[in-house]
Amino acid sequence: MTSSNRPLSPHLQVYRPQLTSILSITHRATGIALSFGIILLIGWILATAAGENYFNTVNSIITSWFGKLVLVGFTWALFYHLCNGVRHLFWDAGYGFELSTVYKSGYATVGASVLLTAAAWIIGISI
């Protein structure tokens, strides 16, 4: 048996983050963020049903610069989670496991989520 300077168990101080690990962590984080975003949107809808005063209060928060920033982040999280979910469906079907394909589909996921977010906001603002 040869001795090695490698640790017995992996940990974050040893491994350099790779695209695949970053995308996996981001997928989980966007799932959590979407859960909180849905609560925010449900609150907005409930404020509509509760009356004009409640709606005006919640609407002023959501339409502030911070509220719009949260909504843009929510929109990106939604599209990222969707695109990465489609990527996982291909993996479930047995396609795209070659390392070059994994990286290409990872970059495509990020790019598509950014483009879809921009398109949704451009369309939403122009209406």
Notable traits:
127 residues, mainly alpha, 3 helical TM bundles of succinate and fumarate reductases, 78% helix
- Total helices: the number is 4
Indicate the CATH architecture.
Up-down Bundle
Number of domains: 1
Poorly predicted tracts of residues? none
- State the end-to-end distance: 69 Å
The major pleated sheet works out as: none
Provide the CATH superfamily.
Fumarate reductase/succinate dehydrogenase, transmembrane subunit
CATH class: Mainly Alpha
Structural class: mainly alpha
CATH topology: 3 helical TM bundles of succinate and fumarate reductases
Average pLDDT for all residues: 92
Structural overview:
By secondary structure, the chain is mostly helical. It has a single domain, classed as 3 helical TM bundles of succinate and fumarate reductases (Up-down Bundle), CATH 1.20.1300.10. Helices cover 78% and strands 0% of the residues. It has 4 helices and no strands. Helix 1 (19-50) runs antiparallel to helix 2. The N and C termini lie far apart (69 Å).
